[in-house]
Design a protein that fits this description.
By secondary structure, this protein is of the alpha+beta class. The protein has 3 domains: 233 residues, BirA Bifunctional Protein, domain 2, CATH 3.30.930; 104 residues, 3-Layer(aba) Sandwich (Rossmann fold), CATH 3.40.50.800; 70 residues, 2-Layer Sandwich (Translation Initiation Factor IF3), CATH 3.30.110.30. It has 13 helices and 21 strands. The strands form 5 sheets. It has a 7-stranded mixed β-sheet, sandwiched between helices. Helix 12 links the parallel strand 18 and strand 19. The longest helix is centred in the C-terminal third of the chain and has 29 residues. The radius of gyration is 25 Å and the shape is globular.
Length: 443
């Protein structure tokens, strides 16, 4: 079916490693994982008008159960605010019940018109955090805290260079008061929204009656947030680091950080036992795969593991056994070097860390080289039409201007970068500029 994909074990292992990195950080900041229903009654979905209007074209509906027509349509969750809100209204009664800090890992469905694997699929895996707070300040701090976690994982784990900031009013999440995002730049010059964090104010609390008795004994509506990333991160990972040979995985997310490939010769019985001993020695310091399949040549295995993006390949043949050394090959640079067997286990973590840093440095260099600052309309439109990368420009912050930019160039704002200088004019319409904004085409 168009818009639906399967994850084989190797791909799902990458997703599990991403989950583990986020879970570690979520739990360190006091969040707990939970699970909420897949189906949302239509009467709940329509309670927040702006929210349902924003998602209406993408909602898939269940209208029958077995052979029985349902009395009310059930939406397959495009996101879970409409099912979580009514539950929070039951769970929260007092200021002592706050804050509520909950995350769920689940699948959602959005009936996308144009689909693309990992980037826009009709069903996708993601996490969505939903929190409730006693004050606006606490909710605002929560939204920024989670945005920083997204930035940290994107850069330190996925080795993606990102920009960070608030979305324009036209691009904010339906029903939110403010949306913040991390944005990465892909090799084709398009931006990839890699994670979002939303301040809802009291919009959803009022729609779903999430109220609490405060310390002053006054009944008040809670302040809520939502934040999420999806397996779109896998798509970003593939595009940002891959090359013509296949995947290039950062060591932090590689299911196998090291693959050992024995180079077997006829009548030689020393290599395979040595390779197995080496796998045991390296297992405590890295995720190691010993490829001892007898029906494939060493050269075939080299190509396969390069395609799968394994950061380090260890080659061991009869001469290596005799010399008590191995040859290691880096996937990111394809460079080879010889390392004594005795020092390999101690040298491996530093090698993997160097690859991780190198991939991030390369991504940052690309982002810097393809971020263009302009202030004149001709250069602004030309850069966006050429898909040259991120274009930083003064902007009037008017929705009509953004719509005109999109109509002419296909680009919109990605995030706002702060206030414009006094006297600056919008790079597109020439009106007074209020902000500096990053523009780009996107997926």
């Amino acid at each position: 079916m168009r818009g639906f994909i399967a994850l084989r074990p190797y791909g799902f292992a990458i997703w599990e490693l991403i989950q583990a990195e986020f879970n570690k950080r979520f739990k360190a900041t006091g969040h707990s994982n939970a699970y909420f229903p897949l189906l949302i009654p239509e009467s709940l979905l329509v309670k927040e008008a702006e929210h349902v209007e924003g998602f209406a074209p993408e909602v898939a509906w269940v209208t029958e159960g077995g052979s029985e027509k349902l009395t009310e349509r059930l939406a397959i969750r495009p996101t879970s605010e409409a099912i979580i809100g009514p539950l929070y209204s039951q769970w929260i009664q007092s200021h002592r019940d706050l804050p509520v800090l909950i995350n769920q890992w689940c699948n959602v469905m959005r009936w996308e018109k144009a689909t693309r694997p990992f980037l826009r699929t009709r069903e996708f895996l993601w996490q969505e955090g939903h929190t409730a707070h006693a004050t606006q300040r606490e909710a605002a701090e929560e939204a920024q805290r989670m945005l920083e976690i997204y930035r940290e994982v994107a850069e330190d784990v996925l080795a993606l260079a990102v920009i960070i900031g608030r979305k324009s009013e036209s691009e904010r999440f339906a029903g939110a008061q403010a949306t913040y995002a991390i944005e990465a730049l892909m090799p084709d010059g398009k931006a990839l929204q890699a994670g979002t964090s939303h301040e809802f104010g009291q919009n959803f609390a009022q729609a779903y009656d999430i109220k609490f008795t405060d310390v002053d004994e006054q009944v008040k509506h809670a302040w809520t947030t939502s934040w999420g990333v999806s397996w779109r991160l896998i798509g970003g990972l593939i595009m940002a680091h891959g090359d013509d040979r296949g995947l290039v995985l950062p060591p932090a997310l590689a299911p196998h950080q090291v693959v050992i490939v024995p180079i077997l010769k006829k009548d030689d019985e020393s290599v395979l036992p040595a390779a197995r001993r080496l796998a045991d020695v390296l297992a405590p310091v890295a995720r190691v795969k010993l490829d001892d399949r007898p029906d494939q040549s060493a050269a075939w295995k080299f190509n396969e593991w390069e395609m799968r993006g394994v950061p380090l390949r260890v080659e061991i043949g009869p001469r290596d056994v005799a010399a008590a050394s191995v040859t290691i090959a880096r996937r990111d640079t394809l460079e080879k070097s010889t390392v004594p067997l005795a020092s390999l286990a101690s040298a491996l973590p530093a090698q993997l860390e160097q690859i991780q840093r190198s991939l991030l440095a390369r991504a940052r260099d690309y982002l810097a080289a393809h971020t263009i600052e302009v202030s004149e309309r001709g250069a602004f439109v030309d850069a966006l039409k050429r898909q040259a990368g991120l274009v930083l420009a003064p902007w009037c912050e008017r929705a009509e201007c953004e719509a005109d930019i999109k109509a002419e160039t296909g680009a919109v704002t990605r995030v706002l970068a702060g206030k414009a200088a006094a006297g600056e004019r919008c790079a597109y319409c020439g009106g007074p500029a209020k902000v500096k904004a990053f523009f780009a085409r996107s997926y």
